[in-house]
Amino acid sequence: MGITVQNITGSTAMVIWPKMASCADTFYSVMYHPNWNSMLSSYSRKSFQKEERVPTTRSSFVVENLTPLTTYIVCVTCQSASPSSDQCRVFNTLERDPASASNTKKELALGIWLTSSILLLIIAAILLYGCLHILCRRTREHLQGQNGTSEQDHGKAWTKNTAQDSEELGRQSQPMQDTEEKHPGGIQLATIIENPSACKEPVMPTSKSRERVPTRGQCSAIN
């Protein structure tokens, strides 16, 4: 078939083949396998590790993701045909490309940076949540302390008012107690306001009290 392999690098190779007029299928099968040894391997389709399907309108294909410094075999056939020795080509990949190595390092560094950023964001979120939780708890405790102080002040004011009321009631009841002490028999004497115009006759002293009270029938009216 005149298969050729060009532009070989450490990880890619371009496979070129002439169009086959006898191939009536809709695509070509591009098969390749690493570490090829013709003494130990056959040309069976099952022996190939990779297989790509290419439309019959094309006559080239770039094989990618190859291993540097490795011997490969590549075969091109019609859709359902098994490859033969004249349809295959053996080639060796080169060393790893500096650009490829640099890209690999960049990808590795980018992956490490992304992973570190995600971990830092998670740690920052955890710390922020903890700080907010502590702040809310302290605020709640402060409010509870203020409420407790207000209740204590209210209780002290109520106790003080109660004491003042009790003291005032004691002062008001003191004259009544003095009066009861003067009359231990429990008899309270009423003060009679005499009308000078109604009672003109003398009054008789009584033995129960030093006060003067009118005798029966001597006053016409007592106001």
Automatic annotation (TrEMBL):
InterPro entries with a match to the protein in the record = FN3_dom, FN3_sf, Ig-like_fold
Q: Which region ranges are annotated with the description Disordered?
A: 165-223
Q: Which residues form a coiled coil?
A: none
Keywords, A to Z? Membrane, Transmembrane, Transmembrane helix
Give the Fibronectin type-III domain ranges: 1-96
Q: Which residues cross the membrane?
A: 110-132
What name appears for this protein in its UniProt entry? FNDC9 protein
User: What organism is this sequence from?
Assistant: Stercorarius parasiticus
